[in-house]
Design brief:
Elements: E1 2-6, E2 9-17, E3 20-25, H1 36-42, E4 46-51, H2 68-82, E5 87-92, H3 94-105, E6 110-116, H4 143-154, H5 157-162, H6 165-176, H7 181-192, E7 207-212, H8 221-229, E8 234-238, H9 245-248, H10 250-262
Parallel strand pairs: 3-4, 3-5, 5-6, 6-7, 7-8
Antiparallel strand pairs: 1-2, 2-4
Helix pairs in contact: 2-3, 4-6
Length: 266
C-alpha cells in the first residue's frame, strides 16, 4: 500500500498490473478492497489504480465539508501523482457520481467511462426504498449491525441464501476498517448535493453504464436515465443482480467491461 498527499489530504492507494491506465473509484462506505477481485481480473491488461477516498478506509478523514467535485479533484490529483495523464475510469455507486464529475471537470483525463450502479443526482434520480437505506445511517453502528444491513441491501436474497458467508465477510470488513461516523456523514452530504443530470450531455468520452436489475439501493432506472443523457452511451443491465452486481454476476461483469474497454484500445 502506498500513500500520497494531494489537495491537503493523505490518500492510501495501490497500483497493480501493466498496460493502459485504469482507475477504479469505490462507493460511499466502501474502500479500495471493494475492487480486490475486479482489479486482479484487469491487472493482466491494465495498470490499475485503486485508492481509499478522503474519509474512507486507510486514508485521512478530515472533519470538513466534502463534495463530489472535491473528491473528483482528489482523484485527478492522485492520477497526476502516479503518472496517469489520462485513464479509463470505472466508478461504482458513489464512485460513479465521482467519475461523472471527473469526466465533466477534467475531461482530458478520462479516456473512457464505466458507470456502475450509480445515479445522476438531483430531483430526476429514482430514489431507493427507505428500508434499503438503513445500512447508510450516519449514526454509530456496531460492525455486526452495519455489515449485516449492508449485505442485505447490496445483494439479492437469492445470492445471500446461496452465499451466507457474504454477511460474515462484510461484518469482518467493518471490524477491520470501521466506518468513521463523522467522515461518513460528510460523504453522505456530498452525495446528497450531487446533481449532474443537466450536465451529463457534456460528457463526450465513450461510456458504458452497467447495473443490476434488482438493485435496492440505487434502482436500475437511474442507469437508464444516465445512458439516455450521455451521447452514445451503452447500457448493460445484469440479472439477477443487486447493487454489488460485479460480485453477484462476476463473469458477466468482467466480460461486459472488458469488451467495452477493448473497443476503446485504439
Amino acid at each position: 500500500m502506498e500513500r500520497a498527499r494531494v489537495n491537503g489530504v493523505e490518500l492510501a492507494y495501490e497500483l497493480r498490473g501493466a498496460g493502459a491506465p485504469l482507475v477504479m473509484i469505490h462507493g460511499a462506505q466502501g474502500d479500495q478492497t471493494t475492487f480486490t477481485a475486479l482489479a486482479t481480473a484487469f491487472a493482466a491488461n491494465f495498470q490499475v489504480l485503486t485508492f481509499d477516498q478522503r474519509g474512507s478506509g486507510l486514508s485521512e478523514k478530515p472533519d470538513v465539508p466534502y463534495s463530489i467535485a472535491m473528491i473528483a479533484d482528489d482523484t485527478a490529483a492522485l492520477m497526476d501523482r502516479v503518472g496517469f495523464s489520462a485513464a479509463h475510469v470505472l466508478g461504482v455507486s458513489m464512485g460513479g457520481t465521482i467519475a461523472q464529475e471527473l469526466a465533466l471537470r477534467h475531461p482530458h483525463k478520462v479516456r473512457s467511462l464505466v458507470l456502475g450502479c450509480t445515479m445522476p443526482g438531483g430531483p430526476k434520480s429514482i430514489r431507493a426504498a427507505r428500508n434499503a437505506l438503513s445500512a447508510y445511517s450516519t449514526n454509530s453502528m456496531s460492525a455486526e449491525e452495519r455489515g449485516t444491513a449492508l449485505a442485505e441491501a447490496a445483494f439479492t436474497k437469492g445470492y445471500i441464501e446461496r452465499h451466507p458467508e457474504i454477511i460474515t465477510a462484510m461484518i469482518e470488513a467493518r471490524r477491520e476498517r470501521p466506518i468513521d461516523s463523522t467522515a461518513f456523514g460528510h460523504r453522505m452530504k456530498a452525495i446528497a448535493g450531487h446533481d449532474a443530470y443537466d450536465r451529463l450531455p457534456q460528457i463526450s468520452c465513450p461510456t458504458l453504464v452497467i447495473t443490476g436489475k434488482d438493485d435496492a439501493l440505487i434502482p436500475w432506472e437511474n442507469s437508464r436515465i444516465i445512458a439516455e443523457r450521455i451521447p452514445g452511451a451503452k447500457l448493460v443491465v445484469l440479472e439477477p443482480a443487486g447493487h454489488s452486481f460485479w460480485v453477484e454476476q462476476d463473469k458477466q461483469s468482467v466480460e461486459a467491461i472488458a469488451r467495452f474497454l477493448s473497443s476503446q484500445s485504439g
